[in-house]
């Protein structure tokens, strides 16, 4: 793998319910609960939550490709802080990362404005 582009990806499931969202992230039918087969905030699911958290796999010892993280501050599904946490983990462990806050981008087709697609194209051109 030569490069990673992350569009509004979830990271720390147990933190998602602390921020505004159209989902109740602690509910048994939340997307996170469905992925891990149980509610993320319950202690018996802690290991599964860690396994699905990409931050678990970030360290200074790992050779990771450059990351481009893009997240809209108005995302109604995945709280913006999820990308902040990923960015901080990558920076803290000295990995190359660029983070763009897409102002008012929302989610889905509203997110993919020309400024976003141009930045993604430039990132891939540089790293691939």
From TrEMBL:
SUPFAM superfamilies: alpha/beta-Hydrolases. InterPro entries: AB_hydrolase_fold (IPR029058), BD-FAE-like_dom (IPR049492). Residues 1-90 form the BD-FAE-like domain. It comes from the Bacteria. This is BD-FAE-like domain-containing protein. It comes from Alteromonas alba. The lineage of its organism: Bacteria, Pseudomonadati, Pseudomonadota, Gammaproteobacteria, Alteromonadales.
